[in-house]
Amino acid sequence: MAGVWRSGGVRWGEDGPGLVWVGARGERRGSRIAFGGDVGFRVVGERRCVGARGNACPGDVVVARGSAQARCGECARLDRVHSVAADGVPDDPRVYRVYLAWFGPGLVKVGITAEEREGARLREQGAVCFSWLGRGPLMAARRCEELLRAALGVPDRVSYEQKRVVRASLPGPGERGEEVRALHARAVGLGGWPESLEPVACRVVDHGRLFGLDGLVPAHGVVRELVPDGVVGGRVLAAAGPDLHLETEGRVVVLDTRLMSGWGLGAAPAGGGITVPVRALRPPDVQDQLF
């Protein structure tokens, strides 16, 4: 299909986000996401499995439209086998870092990432600000992560629905930085840290400007799924993690770019707006926020 590309997802550099595109012969191109600029595409064909670990899906399986991951069951299993998150590589020799990530008032998580990735993992998750807590071997970082989650009462994940609801009403950098610094002080003051994990001094990194969050208006809805021949187009207001906040036809809609993976995507007609299903943005309940 001439002129049809597949999404390779959002890639976050230190200077901002970009979209990766994969052609029919495996060639890759990148397009920078500019706030105030336009994004648009038309959905072509069926959504098919993207494979695992750089390998194509042997069966070229058709996968669900509304899932954030475009993998069939077998490829998902193979991808998980080598996942650090699933402890699939406990003997990984790399240095890991434990971090404290802030997404909104009371929305804080503890996690780990390979030191060589620097802050990429935090940008990919849409962390509005963060600080490192410690560094050391993988399993020591994992034990510290579990200790801090229990002692501080924070989770290991925050849902994207929770992140989206609060993005347009965040306090300023000073207030959110204070919350991170207070939790960091509590964390490093705890006993029971693994001996091989080195504490790291608090230095808050704020992504508010990088994500384009200043002056962001609340979203009206979220793209539920892509469909064949559907169109997505709009002006980019902000980007955080995989989410693009698009202004289109007088409303703001969030597009989770993970929904684009596995689809063929072609050029959108001028002024096409959004013709794919959109659902309301649902505020999380109190139980979600606490647990």
From TrEMBL:
Task: Report the superkingdom from the record.
Answer: Bacteria
Q: Which InterPro entries does the protein's record reference?
A: DUF2797
What protein am I looking at? DUF2797 domain-containing protein
